Amino acid sequence: MGAGSASGVKGPEAGLIELPETTVRKDIEINVSESLMDSIDNMEPKALVKAMVEFSSKTLLLSRRVRSLYERELKEGNQTKVEELQDKVDKHAEEKEAWKKEKEEWEAERKRLATWKVRCLDSEEKLKGRIANLEADYDDIKEKHDGLEGELEDLKSCIIQEHINGFQKGVWQASFFYENVDANDVRFDVNKDAVDGVLIDEAESSLEGNGEKEAVDTDVGGNEVVGEDVEQKAA
After folding, report:
1. From which residue to which does any coiled coil extend (predicted)?
2. Those residues with Cβ within 8 angstroms of residue 38's Cβ, 6 or more apart along the chain or in another chain
3. Within the chain, which residues score under 50 in pLDDT?
4. Measured CA distances, 113 to 41, 86, 147 (Å)
5. pLDDT digits (tens, 9 = 90+) for 73-91
6. Integer distance in angstroms from the first to the last C-alpha of the chain?
7. Cα–Cα dist 114/135, whole Å
């Protein structure tokens, strides 16, 4: 960060620029004034690199924070819905099992009374009506249970897809604001997180330290490399 970017009290350092408010449309078009472009063109290479690194660092930090907030809000909102649906599925599963057991009991009772046709004809007719009602209720519960299971699977898929979409948005914005970031780099992995300078698979990190941690090389000195490249071009 630049010395003048920590608070609004001190103005920008000599040789740096202070960006005015920009307009961002749906097509990601950014409009800047000609005077600002002229100011950038007339800057010294070192000052230009320093300004670029400062604003790129701010963008990177803000994008990570926005992504974290977005993912947390998405998970908290959908987790409640998932839990409600899971409770309904469990409840219907219990009712289904109870109806099934009751149906079996009535079937056994009907068979036992089959030999008592004369004495139990009336009871048998009542049992048939009861069994018919139970079968209708069982089919209705089974249909509801299957529908809830499908809805639950769709919601889980939606959560996973939203997680992937949020990750891709963060990568694309980082690539947009920071030229050295390649959004198509195969090292980007939505299932990994950066911890202590290495990328660790989230599934492995949840096992309380058990298992091996998979890491990939990262450009730790990215800012210094950018500065050297620009200075060499200017020379």
Report:
1. 75-158
2. none
3. 1-12, 14-15, 24, 208, 211-235
4. 99, 41, 37
5. 777 766 677 777 778 888 8
6. 25
7. 20
Residue-level pLDDT at 214? 45
Angle (CA) 224-230-235 rounded to 5° is: 125
Task: Report pLDDT digits (tens) over 118-133.
Answer: 666 777 777 888 888 8
Q: How far apart are CA 171 and CA 183, in angstroms?
A: 6
Q: Rounded to two decimals, what is the model's pTM?
A: 0.29
Work out the angle at residue 234's Cα, subtended by the Cα atoms of residues 230 and 235, and round it to the nearest 5 degrees.
120
